[in-house]
């Protein structure tokens, strides 16, 4: 069996870095970036399965895909493993040429066979992110006929409809489309599992770093890939799982870590005044919203839906509870997406809300519950809303629960109001339009269950308009279609969107080129260095 090259990092060193720093330590090694992060969401490191934020970042630094984009301007799409591509006149067949001499970490060349195998594998395994490829008509039964190798460095991908090309390309740049080394996976396959049980904790990619060691809820170590075309300045990146934000701050102040990823607003404020630390931030494609269940007779009234939009103190939430971690945003497309609107017409206006409630026959208000996750930030936002709702006579009962409980109830349409966030799966506007503005079947037994369905909302003609937008190949026309969709959802929907997430990291001053991107998979350590 082929094995990856041996590296300097020893098991003893991993253990030292993973253990708690009980005494004052020397500065972190000059060739190593040490980060503290709450990353207990990692359940697998197989690109065909990863659907969690922390693991997405790991994949972004260890695997490559056919397509990538400029994180400063995501509209600029380029090839990563692909050297070039063409689209057939009917818009259904994409032909990709692979860059010659691209190598896996093992030293083997990347071929079209590896790319085809990787896409077949993702569809066949059918794990959580497989729908990103499946939406183009690929199934376990037909994928080998639709995605084919046509030469050593050439392949074709045939989609079922002439979608907007950018949609297809963005999805081929998603983590689920990461390219794995076929020979290595075949050698570790058992009982036809496509090497799945092996790759959950191992590595078979070609990115700037190699995933060297992972101990769940303790440490994850990335090591420089010697066969990557652009050598990383650092020999390794070490992630330490540290849940307590106060511990992260202390370790950062002492120099025992280089980056703290999970600080609260007060700690970020303190770190911004520390001369040895710099605070970095970047907007993420994640929005916070309220979902109003239309099975509730009061929440189903248009005047009530509108009234609630006037009972959120957007600015106060952004400036206090979510300080540094979000900014006011009221449309379903995050800033940076094609056609994204940045209008924020709603502000807290209790008098206006009372007028609307009176028109709905609810001048004395009503009682309603809100399902919340038991995190300090979400609970704080819920309590702020409880206060402003109360000023208009709406008695809001907060029901705190863990994330799994809240999501299970939400997905079963058993909530009144749900407070949550939604992160885009890929950098195309369809990722959000398909869930906020479309609902093909509003029955309880529906197969597709987007956010519109979860809130029992039939968006009427918006569903057809969403389907039409994904087929429009002219970017300007397509952007205008999404602007119109956002306006309709903003004016009359069961969604009260109030914030777009900002990711914040506190970084030691001697660290340069630590990059936070528009999605977690875009957080880039490949050119990070220490002075």
TrEMBL record:
From which residue to which does the signal peptide run? 1-26
Q: Which SUPFAM superfamilies match?
A: Periplasmic binding protein-like II (SSF53850)
Q: Origin, by domain of life? A: Bacteria
Does Signal show up as a keyword for this record? yes
- Give the family, as the similarity comment puts it: Belongs to the bacterial solute-binding protein 5 family.
Pfam families in the record = SBP_bac_5
Residue ranges of coiled coil: none
Its recorded name reads ABC transporter substrate-binding protein
**The organism of origin for this protein:** Microvirga terrestris
List residues of the Solute-binding protein family domain.
77-443
Cellular location(s): Periplasm
List the keywords (alphabetical).
Signal
